Amino acid sequence: MSDSTRATNAGYGQIKTLAVRLSEDVRAQLDVIAQLNDRTVTDEIRLAIEAWIEKTKSDPSVLQRAQFVRDEIEREAATKRGAIEAIFNKPTGKPKTSSSSSPDAEKGGSS
Question: Where in the sequence is the signal peptide annotated (predicted)?
Answer without folding.
Answer: none
